[in-house]
Amino acid sequence: MTKEPVYVGIDLGGTTFTIGLVRPDGQLVASANFETAIERGHEDIIDRMAQETVRVWERHGYSRDDILEVGVGSPGPLDLKTGTVITTPNLKWVNVPLRDMMSERLKLPVTIDNDAVSATFGEFWVGAGKPYNDVVGITLGTGVGGGIILGGRILHGAQDIAGHVGHMIIQLDGRQCGCGNLGCLETYASATGIVASTVEALKTGRPSLLHSVTPLTSKRVWEAAVKGDSLALEIFDRTGYYLAAGINSVLNVINPEAVILMGAVANAGDILMNPVKQYLKKMSFPRVYEETRILRGTLGDQAGVIGAAGFAKFR
Ligand SMILES: [Zn+2]
């Protein structure tokens, strides 16, 4: 019996990669998670991604003939014309022809795009962004990434760099960013940024539950905030302020219908979302603030694989 064909979406990260089988309507059929093990190098990682992809579809009763296309969301920057990962600190890759290497191994058409673009596209296709045509997604994890969808299509820009909202400078001469600049949004609104803000605040000697917490993580700061720790609450207020500054620039430049916040830091919920909305209300044009939806993603960790399958389908 032949099965309804599916797309393969792969979400490649520095710690794990996830492989998903996705129906043409965007529903996830199955997914599986694997260690990336970056120390083994790009050839080994790409070999394993291809082998595991075949195993995943076989385990669920599919054959190569049932697979429509493959999409891979990868850390970047990428060169989409050549399908190359130009450089990525997360994976320590330089000029890796990811698209063609995957395509040779799987004997299937492969499309690649940026990982945050994947997550944004997933939310746009079947998640929080489904009702909208113009959407900006912001991923708040170890770093801050983003994707822009205008008129239902991904905006890549001339050098495929569009959507890198994490490297908007929001504090001149601010914190050192991995990109070489000072004061990027990523250094304040990521999980790493939250920890840095907390370390700075604790040094002032103010009382906080967090003085005794090791290792300090953004989740522990969030837990303290939930318990009413005033220092932790202030950290989320400040993080919301920086994030609002970044979102306000996005609204002024792109004017999307919706901004979707995704990733582990977005799981902080109202403790982060309330200050974001409160500061954004002060910063942005009233008509824009009233009309723009500031949403949290609804697909969780699966946004990346669904989105990778989606951009493979709609490329
Ligand atoms: Zn930067």
Helix and strand arrangement:
Blueprint: E1 6-12, E2 16-22, E3 28-35, H1 41-59, E4 67-74, E5 78-79, E6 84-88, E7 93-96, H2 98-106, E8 110-114, H3 115-126, E9 135-140, E10 144-150, E11 153-154, H4 186-189, H5 191-202, H6 218-226, H7 230-254, E12 258-262, H8 270-283, H9 286-291, E13 293-296, H10 303-314
Parallel strand pairs: 1-4, 4-8, 9-12, 12-13
Antiparallel strand pairs: 1-2, 2-3, 5-6, 6-7, 9-10, 10-11
The structure holds zinc ion.
Zinc ion binds at residues 167, 177, 179, 181, 184, 186.
Structure summary:
The chain is α/β, with parallel strands linked by helices. The protein contains 10 helices and 13 strands.
